[in-house]
Amino acid sequence: QVQLVQSGAEVKKPGASVKVSCKASGYTFTNYYMHWVRQAPGQGLEWMGTINPSGGSTGYAQKFQGRVTMTTDTSTNTVDMELSSLGSEDTAVYYCARGGRYCSSSAICNDQYYYYMDVWGKGTTVTVSS
Amino acid sequence: DIVMTQSPDSLAVSLGERATINCKSSQSVLYSSNNKNYLAWYQQKAGQPPKPLIYWASTRESGVPDRFSGSGSGTDFTLTISSLQAEDVAVYYCQQYYSKWTFGRGTKVEIK
Q1: In this complex, do B98 and A123 lie within 8 Å of one another by their Cβ atoms?
Q2: Contact, A44 vs A31, CB < 8 A?
Q3: Helix, strand or coil for residue B21?
Q4: Cβ contact A121–B102 (<8 Å)
Q5: Could you read off the pLDDT of A52-90 as tens digits, one per residue?
Q6: Does A9 contact B at CB distance below 8 Å?
Q7: Residues 13-72 of A with CB under 8 A from B
Q8: pLDDT tens for residues B43-71?
Q9: Please, what's the b/e burial string for A17-43 (b: 16 or more CB within 10 A of its CB; e: otherwise)?
């Protein structure tokens, strides 16, 4: 079945960087966009950005531009999200979530860049504390 | 960015009664070329990731009970739970995917 398995919890000091991994299985990795969404304690959901695992093109929320980097490794079906210059406000659960289907040519299929998130990882807790 | 406004923030409903959650977008999320509303609903139980319930404003995700339904178009949307069950206690979020992705602040549903 389709699964997204995320890396374990992290504790970081202010100013440091954190990298969270998301390993996909049960589907063709390069056929679907991947998103990162975070949730601060007791708060709502916040979209951070998306990556196309086929080629690695990215789109980031303006709030995180310059501080977030998303990468993909097709040999291990893994997407990584690195967030730098951490502050206490970055303490949150970080989720990867599968997006719509990527299609390189409209002659073959319909690209679903704007689509909902149909499969979610269990989340990775990142705590930023001195 | 499109702002999603949910109401109410919380509601308490008796078992078997109807629960209604509203979601309003700051601009239309109806794409005219395909007549689809780019609006989804998610359910999040305590300690769990969000689970998709509804997409395209009214299409139920596979396996979701038919007591959950979505309606609306343009800028105004509703999630209805026709007969609340104990396992429906959760926070519900609307999300637009018309222009990037943004979520409402969530509505907490409890048993009265």
Answers
A1: no
A2: no
A3: strand
A4: no
A5: 999 899 999 999 999 999 999 999 999 999 999 999 999
A6: no
A7: 35, 37, 44-47, 50, 59, 61-62
A8: 999 999 999 999 999 999 999 999 999 99
A9: ebebbbbbeeeebeebbbbbbbbeeee
Q: A106 pLDDT exceeds 80? A: no
Task: Extract the tokens encoding A53.
Answer: 């695992």
Helix, strand, coil percent values for chain B (each to nearest 5): 5, 50, 45
For B97, which of A59, A114, A120 is closest by C-beta distance?
A114
- Whether residues B97 and A121 touch (CB distance < 8 A) is answered with no
| A101 contacts chain B (CB < 8 A) | no
**Partner residue facing B49 (CB), from A59, A114, A120:** A120
Q: What pLDDT is recorded for position A108? A: 79
For position B47, what pLDDT does the model report? 96
Q: Which residues of A touch B41 (CB under 8 A)?
A: none
Residue B61 contacts residue B53 (beta carbons within 8 Å): yes
Q: Which candidate, A116, A91, A117, places its Cα nearest to that of A39? A: A91
Question: Do B105 and A44 make contact, defined as CB atoms within 8 angstroms?
Answer: yes
pLDDT band at A105 (very low <50, low <70, confident <90, very high): confident
Q: Around Cβ A108, how many Cβ atoms within 10 Å?
A: 8
Q: Residue B94 pLDDT > 90, yes or no?
A: yes
